[in-house]
Amino acid sequence: MFRKIKGKREFPNDVKSTGDVLSHLYTTTDLIYDGKNVHVSLIPNPSHLE
After folding, report:
1. What is the rounded distance in angstroms from the CA atom of residue 18 to the CA atom of residue 12?
2. Mind listing the pLDDT tens digit for each residue in 26-45?
């Protein structure tokens, strides 16, 4: 997801996969913010459930 937000391909060239809209994807990462560790998780929001 972060790759797609940055305008890059969603997946590296050697990965055979299909894309999706950003709100359907999920990811998790650890960041450092103001010198502190922050764990961020984005959960999927499938539009067919709305």
Report:
1. 12
2. 778 899 999 999 998 877 77
